[in-house]
Amino acid sequence: MSTTQKCNLLSDRFRTFYPVIIDIETAGFNAKTDALLEISIITLRMDESGWLHKESKLHFHIKPFKGSIIKPDAIAFNKIDPFNPLRGAISEKTAITSILKMVNKGIKVQGCSKGIVVAHNANFDHNFLMAAMDREKVKKNPFHPFVTFDTASLSALAVGETVLAKACKAIGLPFDNNQAHSALYDTLQTANLFCAIVNRWKYLGGWPTKIKKY
């Protein structure tokens, strides 16, 4: 591996954390009892100049796990019919297996120690992801058990907005409200937003840090 490549690994930028953009659509707010219906992830890379970009993506419609609760107000909001055969839904196990394969590969390639959830209002998505991992009895969970990068908080700092659509528009990204609350679209927009904030910080001279360490 060249010196340039070593300097631009994600492990150097985020203290060995491997950021994974995630959005999850559900049938309620309780991660342990309510069905997970849709999940999408996007991984990231840094180019030779240190700018952050989207890399790979996965997107799955999920079958409600056995005994899960489906709350009418939740599916009325996200407009997901959990039992529509045209969804092409798969089991949580199949989806989690594919996600783990991609994330573990990225962690290894980038020389990182842990995956870290990056999401808008990240506590919600992190809780549902961890609950799904528990249900599938994942022995080696690559994600940090409690640390997340929350783009709602980052957006409040960067552009004074916390709503995803408003934050995207404030930083100069397009946002289609008609596509919102689809896991794939929201993950794409969250990834664009996260990259825009991180890259703007670099553009402004905040990275690499020039603060003297004592």
From TrEMBL:
EC number from the UniProt entry: 3.1.13.-
Name of the protein: Ribonuclease T
SMART domains referenced in this protein's UniProt entry, alphabetically: EXOIII
Source organism of the structure: Buchnera aphidicola
One Pfam family linked to the record: RNase_T
This protein's GO CC annotations: cytosol
Quaternary context: Homodimer.
GO biological process terms, semicolon-separated: DNA replication proofreading; tRNA processing
Active-site residues per Swiss-Prot or TrEMBL entry: 181 (proton donor/acceptor)
Binding, Mg(2+) 1: 23
Superkingdom of source: Bacteria
Protein family membership: Belongs to the RNase T family.
Cofactor comment: Binds two Mg(2+) per subunit. The active form of the enzyme binds two Mg(2+) ions in its active site. The first Mg(2+) forms only one salt bridge with the protein.
The keyword Secreted appears for this protein: no
Obligatory cofactor(s): Mg(2+)
Entry-linked InterPro entries: Ribonucl_H, RNase_T, RNaseH-like_sf, RNaseH_sf
GO molecular function: 3'-5' exonuclease activity; magnesium ion binding; nucleic acid binding; RNA exonuclease activity, producing 5'-phosphomonoesters
PANTHER family: DNA POLYMERASE III SUBUNIT EPSILON (PTHR30231), RIBONUCLEASE T (PTHR30231:SF2)
Enzyme class: hydrolase
SUPFAM superfamilies assigned to the protein according to its UniProt record, in alphabetical order: Ribonuclease H-like
Positions of the record's site feature: Important for substrate binding and specificity: 29, 77, 124, 146
